[in-house]
Design brief:
Length: 205
């Protein structure tokens, strides 16, 4: 009789241990499922799709600090391209300069006013001159704020009778400002000066 009770007690304990193991395994599986689900949802929130030319391109969001050097170089490149790419059309010149001046402070506006006073833009229009700028490289010192930069570029000036290539070296500083439609990178160029701008090659047309 006692042996029978002991067998029932042992079976009950074994069953209880088994059930506890099953419950523990279920809790572990549920915990892992919730964790993985949260991880996938978090990754999905940092991922967007951009429609370009009928194709969906994946874009991944990142913290700004991860992209500051890239954004800073692109800001400098965009400014120089807008400021120095000109065609013999007053609206094109004014449009490019207006966009460029949103990206820089009064130091750029002063250079624009000096060029305007010297009839630089009037001569471009009257002489049917086109000017294109290719930024070769931009070096930025990220160790100290505001970030100092130096831009190396090549100007191609197309006149009715010749094509002139000029090298351009400028430097300045970058300060953080609020992002906007006119300034998507959130930087402002300060203390901008031209260090060198001289002819390197002239070709007859």
């Amino acid at each position: 009789m006692f042996t029978k009770f002991k067998s029932i007690d042992s079976a009950f304990r074994a069953m209880r241990l088994f059930m506890l193991c099953v419950i523990a395994m279920c809790l572990i599986i549920c915990g892992l499922t919730v964790f993985k689900g949260y991880e996938v949802a978090n990754k999905a929130q940092n991922r967007i799709y951009v429609l370009m030319n009928g194709k969906a391109l994946e874009a991944i969001a990142a913290e700004r600090k991860d992209n500051i050097p890239v954004e800073a170089r692109d800001h400098v490149k965009t400014f120089h391209t807008l400021f120095f790419t000109l065609d013999p059309d007053e609206k094109v010149i004014q449009g490019n300069i207006t966009k460029a001046l949103y990206l820089a402070d009064g130091s750029a506006k002063k250079q624009y006013e000096d060029l305007k006073e010297a009839n630089y833009y009037t001569n471009i229009i009257s002489g049917n001159v086109s000017q294109q700028l290719t930024v070769d490289s931009v070096s930025i010192n990220m160790d100290q704020y505001p970030y100092s930069f130096r831009c190396f570029a090549t100007q191609k000036i197309t006149r009715p009778t010749s094509i002139v290539l000029r090298n351009l070296i400028t430097e300045g500083q970058l300060r953080n400002v609020s992002r906007s439609d006119n300034n998507p990178h959130g930087f402002l160029i300060e203390r901008w000066i031209t260090l060198q701008n001289r002819d390197i090659k002239t070709e007859a047309r």
